[in-house]
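Supplementary Methods, section 5.1.

A reviewer requested that the exact input to the structure prediction be made available. We therefore reproduce it here, unchanged from the version used in the analyses.
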Amino acid sequence: MKLKAQYLQGAVWLILLAGCGTTTVKTDYAAYVNPFIGTGGHGHTFPGAIVPNGMIQPGPDTRIYGWDACSGYYTADSTINGFSHTHLSGTGCGDYGDILLMPTVGVQKTEHVAPDTQTLAYASRFSHENEAASPGYYSVFLDTYKVKAELTATERAAFHRYTFPESTESGFILDLDYSLQGQKNRKLELEIVNDSTLCGYKNTNGWAWKHDVYFYAVFSKPFTCTILADSVVSLDGKNIQPIKKALLHFATAKDEQILVKIALSAVDKEGAQKNLTEIPGWDFERVKADARQAWNNYLSKIDIDTPDEQQKTVFYTAMYHTGISPNLFTDIDGRYRGLDREIHTAETGKPMYTIFSLWDTFRALHPLLTIIDPELNTGFIHALLQQYQDGGILPMWELAGNYTGTMIGYNAVPVIVDAYMKGNRDFDAVLALKACLRSAEYDTLSPIATTNYLKKNALMPISKYYKNTLGYIPCDKEHESVAKALEYAYDDWCISLLAGSLGDTVTQHRYQKLAKAYKHYFDPTVRFMRGKNSEGQWRTPFNPRSSNHREDDYCEGTAWQWTWFVPHDIDGLVELMGGREGFISKLDSLFTADSSLEGSLVSADISGLIGQYAHGNEPSHHIIHLYNYVEQPWKAQALVDSVLRTQYFNDPNGLSGNEDCGQMSAWYIMNSMGFYQPCPGRIEYSIGRPLFNTVTIKLPAGKMFRIVAKNNALENKYIESATLNGQPLDRPFFTHDQLMEGGTLELMMTDKPTRWGTK
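The structure derived from this sequence is encoded token-by-token as follows.
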């Protein structure tokens, strides 16, 4: 793969400023982005075209089924099924792959393939040598058809350009029934508007239980069209599913370019047609350049100084991954489909978004955004609160206007509270508290617009009843009891902060008490968080390395990883472990323990292991920084350095776990700059090991915060001394307010552990 040639072709570019006739030089941050990072291993990213937080994601699909088909693309594949317009980035579940378009030359093969076949009849071979991707652009040469495909996008519309060979049998297949992961098609509609325009609609049931997609497609060349309509037995062998494809035909001259504009809407066909107005003409290069500029605007929020070109690529690709989702879900006219499945009009300046992977992203993505783009993060909070009003409860993992009920906890709460505690308060805080309390209480009577299964088993699991009445969740009554309880305790602590800030002392004190519930699960005889049954007895047998994915006492982890999830009360956890020395001894053992796992179904999410620390999954992400709270910051510095250098690469296999909608990358960004926020809601940053010589964060109102690592080198991973704005800094912490005021954090690096930060 021609990675370096494609992505590192210079650090600056020339932009002609419209209307003034002058040229200026701007840094081309996009030149350092490699969208193929994470498309191998189990990163589950996609290389297709998108603008920051865009509604549409046109890109190649190389496989349909299996865990590594979550985004539709996997770097080990050698065939492309076509180019669909919706993709998830780095998730552990799969969906989307809507409105697949494939250019063809010759006889169009449309015969049905076996239900679990990865390659469609009309798929094309391709080579990574003839493939390229950059922010807002993707291209590939399709060997089977001898067609070059190019994709770019605006917020709501995709723009395709295809270069055909000479043929009297050129055309396209627009596949409406295709989707990823074998979703059930409930309804398909396809209409020929005229000889260059198609529109249609599909409703599917998959991870999103009701997914509505309308599309409007305009072609630059007139076509003749045949609608193929049929039905097949679905993957489960029980249901009959409809098939609907448009077979387009035309003749092409050698190297003739055919352009296609496609827009989507979750509202209606008219919404899709209006969204297409984002591309008024046929200037592909202009749209491509605008997409790249949009990415440069986003990527420019942080400047790094390092001579290592590979590090630049890893960093700015990480930045790129943090800008993909949540995705815009509001049509150009302001309408969107709400969680009640009804059509609403968004308030001006408060668009709706979708893809809230909150179990992952509350930890680092949203805290990062409170620094580099607090206005955007507040926009996401507006969307979450509107979803609460539309659907009756804050989402856990929202997808395409649907509650999925995926994962545990109620992690919209820390996103809201962290922003509020940092002073980002441009939202209705009283409404926010009401929404947070609704998530924390066991209340199955209030209306929730979703399936009864999701309502009873995910959105309102009986575990909430147990934690609010018994004080703990019996492991013989609920799967993932320990993980749920630990997350509930943290989320409840966040609620206590918001209630206290609003003067609601009754609620504050109640939730402060609930936040201590983690203590029920600590067994001092083994010094692990452990399941406790309804009779108050520890679950036996107990093995801290055991994993039975989503059907044991933990969630995508083991006792080794989950014992440390008490970010809101580290002092309390230290005390449980017998004091500072006992805590340190236990924490040391996490990173040196045997990495082997046991169990009937070991969770594939437990990856990126250093001992039993699992960097490839989110429950571990705060743990390294716990050393700073027990006066051993040099250990945090060494471990951060190790993770940064061994688990993030400029390679398709360059992520140690699912990207998870920006969380894995946000962890990298913050830690490579030299700090992390172990506990969102507590507005304090923990200092680790800066990877770069200088980092400049561009803050609102023109302020800057710089992190300068003096004497920085590969071997110099320890901090000898530090100053903040010229004043000695003796603690390995600084506050959000100090950062947002602007200034300089200066760190003197050395090659040996020091006692800095222990005073």
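Residues 481-501 form the longest helix (21 residues). These observations are discussed further in the main text.
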